Records
---
Amino acid sequence: MTIKQNRKQKLRKETPRPASPVVDYLIIGNGVAGMNCALSIRQHDREGTLTILTHEPVPFYSRPLIVDVMTGKKRKEDIILVQDEEYKRNRITLLKDVRVEKLDRKTRSVRTQEGVFFYKKLLIATGAEPKTIPLTGTGIFSLRTIQDAEVIARYLKHVKRAIVYGGGPVGIKAAYALLTAGIPVSIIVTSPHILSRVLDETVAIRFQKLFESHGATFYLQREIEDREGRSALKGVITDRGERIPGDILIVGKGVEPDLALIRDTEIKAGKGIVVNDKMETNCENIYAAGDVAEAPLSAHHYPLTTSLSPLTNQVISLWHVGASQGRVAGTNMAGSTCVYEGGVGSNSIEYFGLKCISMGTLKDTGTEEITIEENSVYRKYIFQEERLIGAVLLDDVTDAGTLLHAIRKGLPVKSHLLRHPLTPYPLRGTESISMEVLF
Amino acid sequence: MREIFFIKERCVECGACKAACIAEHKKNYSLYSPVSSLPMARKRREDSGKKPPDSALPHPVRCVHCEIPLCKEACISGSIGVADRVYNKWDKCVGCFMCIMNCPYGAILPFFNKAVRCDECLFTEKPACVRACPQNALIFVEADEFSEKEKKRRWKERIEKEIPLMKAKA
């Protein structure tokens, strides 16, 4: 027996090691979460090898600004945030145009067309894919990557009238970019008012009127049934039988997490990959962050009495949430400890000079709403008992950060806010900076 | 790290700090052109327009220059940089106001379609407002140093007030 075992061991030793070396930190996805993770690892660990795999042919760019590339307001080089030299300086290996095919947890490897990569710690930051509609053919585009934007930019030269499907932040932003480029837009929205998940009705209607005065047409509570035009798009037909003319259809129906990589693995997933407050998945040494992760909400934000318990996980597809998740994941991967405080859904929008910031929960049971309207300033606070859980600020957006901080930490600020509704940060500057009020 | 502190009792509301701030952040360092040109040069100081409940005096809205700046994480255009202090790059800002939404101190202000903060005048020994203040109401010192000075100053004031009273009683 012993001899046999020895032989076996010898055989094992003699089997050739895989050609590709083991990477200390492997990151799949070069979005905001992946990039922030890489930079955060480099802050804690200067030595370990770090590789980022991405299916896109460009280095890290700003995804929210691709609408400006679409209309030609900005060049492609302008929105690239981290140049190739900076990757080299931080000793990060960026492999572009690499699609990850399979994840093998037992051998700790990732298979791509370029070869097999072995990892010690892995971050999955594959992001999200835009929701598609059953219609196909030329003239129908979704807007997610910089390549999409470039393809649309080429197509837009022959476009006289555009259709945007979806009244979410993506759709409205695309519509705004087209309007500023001088192309009239028809916007088809499924819900009763635009930006229904972001804004309340009063503000949404104000934005809708602003868009209409600049040449947009809204079709609310409608869905697209069919397309018109065989080769090139000439228009669409809604479920109410209306015919809306247009040469291009941009679909902005939102995004959903890209879970193709983990479909046949043991990694637990609901809507996205379930992670704890250190961004770890249920498998060892595998982390997830960004649009693909389903992270716990801010524990302070949702008290037990609401429909959402503090243990609820949720996918929040926002730039700054992805960034902070990436930072937390990177710190934990590098060996230090950092706890994710939980994200709060918040959006900042600015169209035709009208600024608006909305944050937190806007519709929930057992809440109290307080609206303040003073010469063109509109503010709405949503309280639950003593806590602030949501707010909408229109036009005057100063101090929005302090309100978001109060929501994130669940601070009892109601009595103070009722006394000074427009100055949430009371003791600013002067000798009496007493931080106990807010911190 | 040194910070700007404001001593309320010394302020006479001359507004020299505001003018100096505007001039400092305009490239040619003159006062007349930034005040008269449109859009105006950056003004990084809050003044009495908003009227905080406690005082209507002009005072600096300070950036704390956090170790992990949340504003930098939120910035979509890469316009916020960190070099010892946190600063905004004026030409790169696209006016999305994500940084304003994320700063827990409310230290970033919207100015037309750009976000603006006090960067304590990068690459200078003292911020312009501190240099300009004729009353020494604005001082640029370490936090510990300020609290010690403040204690001494208050003690001195109290004595100055109380000694005449005691004399009168006697």
---
Amino acid sequence: MPTEPTLRLVAGDEPAGPDALLERVARGDLAAFDALYGQLSAAVYGVARRVVRDPARAEEVTQEVFLDVWRQATRFDHVRGTARTWVLTIAHRRAVDAVRSSEAQRAREERVSSRTPEVVEGPEEEVVSAMEHESVHRCLESLTPLQLESLRLAYFQGYTYAQVASLLDRPLPTIKARMRDGLIRLRDCLEATDDA
Amino acid sequence: MTPDIHTLAGAYVLDAVEPDERAAFETHLSQCDSCPQEVASLRRAVASWGGSLALAPPPELRTRVLGQVERTRQLPPLVKEVSSAARRRRRTARWLAAAAVVVAVAAGGVATQQALEDNGPAGVTAAQVFSSSDAETSTIAMRGGRARIALSRDLGRIALDASKMPPLPDGRVYQLWVIDETGPHSAGVVDRPSLTLKIPAPDAQLALTTEPAGGSRRPTTEPLFVVLPSDL
């Protein structure tokens, strides 16, 4: 059936997930894009807020991410992963780029404390899938302290592994290895949870 | 390449690498059988982590994003097996065939104009072009190898990764050509694993041929591939 220029999602048996929506976005479907935004904007904004901190900047990052998603949807390769993973990969990359370019601008500013500050959960409504939140936290707790610290400094602060190594006063290869084996442990734990 | 590049997988998916390391790792990724799968699985884990941080953005952001998207063109899809480019390729082949006749007379140890540079005017390396956030990259399958091309409008350059192109017999070299409406112009001999060149005029094509050592003034063989940079 030819696509009609409707602004409503076509009702189906089940609501379209990000992968199906992204396929339609690739064909220029704005309604699908809107629906995709509805499904993923909280995750994108959440990552941006955690990394860049400043709400206004996090909104800009979110906007950049969705613009990337729109422009590059035509080249998304589903063989390499799900739409959600792809969008969140872009989100973190963009957030880190934002942090690093503003860091470069004010390179003289005082160093951030070596501890990962507790994240302000903010007054905003949290729209976390409780299940996912729960299993991610449980799995993060299964990491060694050094794995967890390395991952958090990289993921939340946008530090390079070299910066993390210097901050934690450990050799480069150690941190590089802890990032990889930490993520492997996280992945295996999450996959075991999914299967259960 | 460092032997332990593989262990960079974790730092890579956390975006905890410098741009040149990212480029090096991505090169490694394209040559390693198990890596893409590992990277994909780690990305999934990182995405779950990211997803657990979800926080509703202010409602007005949606209006802004949709408004901006409505005014923005999408990138053209990549054509895997160049069927729509076949027409252009035929046209180019005619150019090159015509040129080859001329060459038989003019060739012979001509010093070719060297437009290729490891470093552009702004010190741009191929790795930087490949890792630029606006880079459009494409891999071209060649018999016994592949070439990778990246175009960055921000950096104003095209990069060629020739490190996986099939080796040539002694006395033969790869030569790049920029083809515009006046015909093919040498962009130089490919004598390094990677190089960059300025983005040519919008309708110009980029072609690769094999030539006698030292290069030719005009192409003497059929192009191995032809790309339209604006399609990248």
